[in-house]
Design brief:
With 252 residues, the protein is an alpha/beta fold. Helix content is 38%, strand content 15%. The chain contains 10 helices and 11 strands. The strands form 2 sheets. Strands 6, 7, 8, 9, 10 and 11 form a 6-stranded mixed β-sheet that branches. A 5-stranded parallel β-sheet has the order 3-2-1-4-5, sandwiched between helices. A hairpin with a 2-residue loop joins strand 6 and strand 7. Helix 5 runs antiparallel to helix 6 and helix 6 packs parallel to helix 10. The longest helix is centred in the middle third of the chain and has 18 residues.
Amino acid sequence: MAARGGGGIVSTNPCVDSVLVRILPPARIAAISHYSQDPSATSIPIAVARRFRGIAGTAEEVIALHPDLVIASTYTSPATQAAYARAGLKTLLVGIPDSIAESQAQVTQIAEAAGAPMGGARINAEIDRAVARWSSKGGPKDDMPPSALLYISGDLATGGSTLLNDMMTRVGFRNAAATYGLTHTGTLSAETIVMQPPSVVIASERASRGTALRHRLLPGTPQAVFPRVLINCGGPTIPPALERLAAIRAGL
Protein backbone atom coordinates (compact mmCIF):
# COMPACT_ATOMS: atom_id res chain seq x y z
CA MET A 1 0.00 0.00 0.00
CA ALA A 2 1.27 3.47 -0.85
CA ALA A 3 2.41 5.72 1.98
CA ARG A 4 0.04 8.52 3.00
CA GLY A 5 2.33 11.40 3.84
CA GLY A 6 0.36 13.91 1.80
CA GLY A 7 3.20 14.66 -0.56
CA GLY A 8 1.96 12.63 -3.50
CA ILE A 9 4.14 10.62 -5.87
CA VAL A 10 7.18 11.88 -7.73
CA SER A 11 8.30 10.08 -10.88
CA THR A 12 11.68 10.75 -12.46
CA ASN A 13 11.12 8.13 -15.17
CA PRO A 14 9.05 8.97 -18.28
CA CYS A 15 7.86 5.38 -18.64
CA VAL A 16 6.55 5.46 -15.08
CA ASP A 17 4.84 8.77 -15.93
CA SER A 18 2.90 7.07 -18.71
CA VAL A 19 1.46 4.60 -16.20
CA LEU A 20 0.77 7.04 -13.37
CA VAL A 21 -1.19 9.54 -15.46
CA ARG A 22 -3.55 6.71 -16.47
CA ILE A 23 -4.17 5.22 -13.02
CA LEU A 24 -4.07 8.14 -10.57
CA PRO A 25 -5.99 11.38 -10.14
CA PRO A 26 -3.74 14.36 -10.98
CA ALA A 27 -3.69 15.52 -7.37
CA ARG A 28 -1.79 12.37 -6.37
CA ILE A 29 1.07 13.10 -8.79
CA ALA A 30 3.46 15.65 -7.31
CA ALA A 31 5.84 15.72 -10.28
CA ILE A 32 6.82 13.82 -13.42
CA SER A 33 10.01 13.55 -15.40
CA HIS A 34 10.91 16.49 -17.62
CA TYR A 35 11.44 13.94 -20.41
CA SER A 36 7.68 13.52 -20.62
CA GLN A 37 7.47 17.18 -21.61
CA ASP A 38 9.92 16.64 -24.48
CA PRO A 39 8.21 15.60 -27.74
CA SER A 40 11.16 13.35 -28.65
CA ALA A 41 11.16 11.47 -25.34
CA THR A 42 7.57 11.38 -24.13
CA SER A 43 5.08 8.52 -24.20
CA ILE A 44 2.12 10.67 -23.20
CA PRO A 45 0.48 13.59 -25.01
CA ILE A 46 2.43 16.79 -24.42
CA ALA A 47 -0.75 18.60 -23.41
CA VAL A 48 -1.25 16.04 -20.64
CA ALA A 49 2.39 16.17 -19.54
CA ARG A 50 2.31 19.95 -19.20
CA ARG A 51 -0.47 19.75 -16.63
CA PHE A 52 2.10 18.46 -14.15
CA ARG A 53 5.25 19.82 -12.58
CA GLY A 54 8.24 18.58 -14.58
CA ILE A 55 11.54 17.88 -12.82
CA ALA A 56 15.02 16.84 -13.89
CA GLY A 57 15.22 14.36 -11.04
CA THR A 58 17.99 15.86 -8.94
CA ALA A 59 17.97 14.79 -5.31
CA GLU A 60 17.52 18.37 -4.15
CA GLU A 61 14.34 19.07 -6.13
CA VAL A 62 12.80 15.68 -5.33
CA ILE A 63 13.50 15.94 -1.59
CA ALA A 64 12.10 19.48 -1.52
CA LEU A 65 8.72 18.13 -2.63
CA HIS A 66 8.48 15.79 0.41
CA PRO A 67 6.74 13.07 -1.60
CA ASP A 68 5.09 9.95 -0.19
CA LEU A 69 6.86 7.90 -2.84
CA VAL A 70 9.60 8.38 -5.44
CA ILE A 71 9.59 6.09 -8.47
CA ALA A 72 12.86 6.27 -10.38
CA SER A 73 15.04 4.29 -12.76
CA THR A 74 17.48 1.60 -11.68
CA TYR A 75 20.03 3.79 -13.48
CA THR A 76 19.58 6.54 -10.89
CA SER A 77 23.03 7.38 -9.54
CA PRO A 78 24.04 5.79 -6.21
CA ALA A 79 24.63 9.28 -4.78
CA THR A 80 21.06 10.32 -5.58
CA GLN A 81 19.67 7.07 -4.18
CA ALA A 82 21.67 7.63 -0.99
CA ALA A 83 20.30 11.17 -0.70
CA TYR A 84 16.75 9.84 -0.99
CA ALA A 85 17.51 7.33 1.77
CA ARG A 86 18.98 9.97 4.07
CA ALA A 87 15.86 12.07 3.58
CA GLY A 88 13.72 9.09 4.56
CA LEU A 89 11.95 8.88 1.21
CA LYS A 90 10.19 5.71 0.19
CA THR A 91 11.70 4.78 -3.19
CA LEU A 92 10.89 2.29 -5.94
CA LEU A 93 13.43 1.70 -8.70
CA VAL A 94 12.31 0.16 -12.00
CA GLY A 95 14.37 -1.14 -14.89
CA ILE A 96 13.88 -1.46 -18.65
CA PRO A 97 11.60 -4.40 -19.54
CA ASP A 98 12.83 -6.67 -22.31
CA SER A 99 9.50 -8.26 -23.19
CA ILE A 100 5.76 -7.69 -23.08
CA ALA A 101 5.49 -9.97 -20.05
CA GLU A 102 8.19 -8.02 -18.20
CA SER A 103 6.47 -4.75 -19.06
CA GLN A 104 3.17 -6.02 -17.70
CA ALA A 105 4.90 -7.14 -14.49
CA GLN A 106 6.36 -3.65 -14.17
CA VAL A 107 2.94 -2.03 -14.66
CA THR A 108 1.64 -4.19 -11.81
CA GLN A 109 4.60 -3.23 -9.62
CA ILE A 110 4.10 0.50 -10.23
CA ALA A 111 0.34 0.35 -9.72
CA GLU A 112 0.63 -1.57 -6.46
CA ALA A 113 3.27 0.83 -5.13
CA ALA A 114 1.02 3.75 -6.06
CA GLY A 115 -1.96 2.19 -4.30
CA ALA A 116 -3.92 1.72 -7.54
CA PRO A 117 -3.72 -2.00 -8.39
CA MET A 118 -6.97 -1.97 -10.36
CA GLY A 119 -5.54 0.71 -12.66
CA GLY A 120 -2.58 -1.51 -13.41
CA ALA A 121 -4.90 -4.44 -14.05
CA ARG A 122 -6.86 -2.35 -16.58
CA ILE A 123 -3.69 -1.44 -18.48
CA ASN A 124 -2.56 -5.08 -18.54
CA ALA A 125 -5.98 -6.23 -19.73
CA GLU A 126 -5.70 -3.78 -22.63
CA ILE A 127 -2.26 -5.20 -23.45
CA ASP A 128 -3.61 -8.78 -23.35
CA ARG A 129 -6.39 -7.84 -25.77
CA ALA A 130 -3.92 -6.15 -28.12
CA VAL A 131 -1.59 -9.16 -28.08
CA ALA A 132 -4.50 -11.47 -28.87
CA ARG A 133 -5.73 -9.22 -31.68
CA TRP A 134 -2.49 -8.31 -33.40
CA SER A 135 -0.31 -11.40 -32.96
CA SER A 136 0.49 -13.19 -36.20
CA LYS A 137 -1.75 -16.15 -37.00
CA GLY A 138 0.71 -17.49 -39.57
CA GLY A 139 0.92 -21.22 -40.26
CA PRO A 140 3.64 -23.51 -41.65
CA LYS A 141 3.88 -21.52 -44.88
CA ASP A 142 5.18 -18.60 -42.81
CA ASP A 143 8.27 -20.42 -41.54
CA MET A 144 10.34 -17.55 -42.90
CA PRO A 145 8.53 -14.36 -41.93
CA PRO A 146 9.52 -11.07 -43.59
CA SER A 147 12.56 -9.41 -42.11
CA ALA A 148 12.32 -5.94 -40.61
CA LEU A 149 14.89 -3.50 -39.30
CA LEU A 150 13.56 -0.95 -36.83
CA TYR A 151 15.55 2.26 -36.35
CA ILE A 152 14.97 4.00 -33.04
CA SER A 153 16.74 7.19 -34.09
CA GLY A 154 19.26 8.02 -36.79
CA ASP A 155 21.32 4.86 -37.41
CA LEU A 156 20.44 3.26 -34.05
CA ALA A 157 18.59 0.00 -34.70
CA THR A 158 16.93 -2.28 -32.19
CA GLY A 159 18.46 -5.71 -31.71
CA GLY A 160 17.23 -8.87 -30.03
CA SER A 161 16.18 -9.32 -26.38
CA THR A 162 14.23 -6.04 -26.33
CA LEU A 163 10.59 -5.13 -25.93
CA LEU A 164 10.52 -3.81 -29.48
CA ASN A 165 11.94 -7.11 -30.74
CA ASP A 166 9.23 -8.99 -28.85
CA MET A 167 6.52 -6.85 -30.42
CA MET A 168 8.00 -7.18 -33.91
CA THR A 169 8.08 -10.94 -33.56
CA ARG A 170 4.52 -11.09 -32.24
CA VAL A 171 3.07 -9.41 -35.32
CA GLY A 172 4.95 -11.68 -37.70
CA PHE A 173 8.28 -10.00 -38.41
CA ARG A 174 11.76 -11.42 -38.13
CA ASN A 175 14.16 -8.87 -36.69
CA ALA A 176 16.87 -8.46 -39.33
CA ALA A 177 19.41 -7.01 -36.91
CA ALA A 178 21.15 -10.36 -36.36
CA THR A 179 21.68 -10.66 -40.13
CA TYR A 180 24.19 -7.83 -39.84
CA GLY A 181 25.81 -9.13 -36.64
CA LEU A 182 23.84 -6.88 -34.30
CA THR A 183 22.88 -8.89 -31.19
CA HIS A 184 21.89 -5.88 -29.09
CA THR A 185 20.59 -2.44 -29.96
CA GLY A 186 23.33 -0.60 -31.83
CA THR A 187 24.34 1.38 -34.89
CA LEU A 188 23.66 0.13 -38.41
CA SER A 189 24.36 2.47 -41.29
CA ALA A 190 22.56 2.29 -44.63
CA GLU A 191 25.84 1.25 -46.26
CA THR A 192 25.94 -1.80 -43.96
CA ILE A 193 22.58 -3.17 -45.04
CA VAL A 194 22.58 -2.22 -48.71
CA MET A 195 23.97 -5.57 -49.94
CA GLN A 196 21.31 -7.56 -48.09
CA PRO A 197 18.40 -5.26 -47.32
CA PRO A 198 15.53 -6.38 -45.08
CA SER A 199 11.98 -6.78 -46.34
CA VAL A 200 11.10 -3.44 -44.75
CA VAL A 201 12.89 -0.63 -42.94
CA ILE A 202 10.94 0.92 -40.09
CA ALA A 203 12.06 4.24 -38.64
CA SER A 204 10.83 6.73 -36.09
CA GLU A 205 11.61 9.75 -38.25
CA ARG A 206 10.16 10.93 -41.52
CA ALA A 207 13.08 13.25 -42.21
CA SER A 208 16.64 12.74 -41.02
CA ARG A 209 20.04 12.22 -42.59
CA GLY A 210 19.86 8.47 -41.97
CA THR A 211 16.34 8.20 -43.36
CA ALA A 212 17.24 10.17 -46.49
CA LEU A 213 20.31 8.02 -47.09
CA ARG A 214 18.37 4.80 -46.69
CA HIS A 215 15.77 6.00 -49.17
CA ARG A 216 18.53 6.80 -51.65
CA LEU A 217 20.54 3.59 -51.22
CA LEU A 218 17.55 1.23 -50.87
CA PRO A 219 15.06 2.48 -53.48
CA GLY A 220 13.37 -0.92 -53.75
CA THR A 221 12.93 -1.49 -50.02
CA PRO A 222 9.64 -0.40 -48.40
CA GLN A 223 10.16 2.16 -45.64
CA ALA A 224 7.58 2.74 -42.93
CA VAL A 225 7.24 5.25 -40.11
CA PHE A 226 6.84 4.07 -36.52
CA PRO A 227 6.31 7.19 -34.39
CA ARG A 228 8.89 7.85 -31.69
CA VAL A 229 6.12 8.17 -29.09
CA LEU A 230 5.54 4.42 -29.57
CA ILE A 231 9.20 3.55 -29.10
CA ASN A 232 10.17 5.17 -25.84
CA CYS A 233 8.25 2.99 -23.38
CA GLY A 234 6.15 -0.11 -22.91
CA GLY A 235 3.12 -0.43 -20.65
CA PRO A 236 0.19 1.57 -22.05
CA THR A 237 2.14 2.18 -25.26
CA ILE A 238 2.16 -1.51 -26.19
CA PRO A 239 -1.38 -1.71 -27.68
CA PRO A 240 -0.94 1.16 -30.19
CA ALA A 241 2.61 -0.01 -30.95
CA LEU A 242 1.41 -3.52 -31.78
CA GLU A 243 -1.39 -2.10 -33.93
CA ARG A 244 1.05 0.06 -35.91
CA LEU A 245 3.55 -2.78 -36.39
CA ALA A 246 0.76 -5.10 -37.49
CA ALA A 247 -0.41 -2.50 -40.02
CA ILE A 248 3.11 -2.26 -41.44
CA ARG A 249 3.28 -6.06 -41.65
CA ALA A 250 -0.10 -6.25 -43.39
CA GLY A 251 0.99 -3.61 -45.89
CA LEU A 252 3.88 -5.61 -47.30
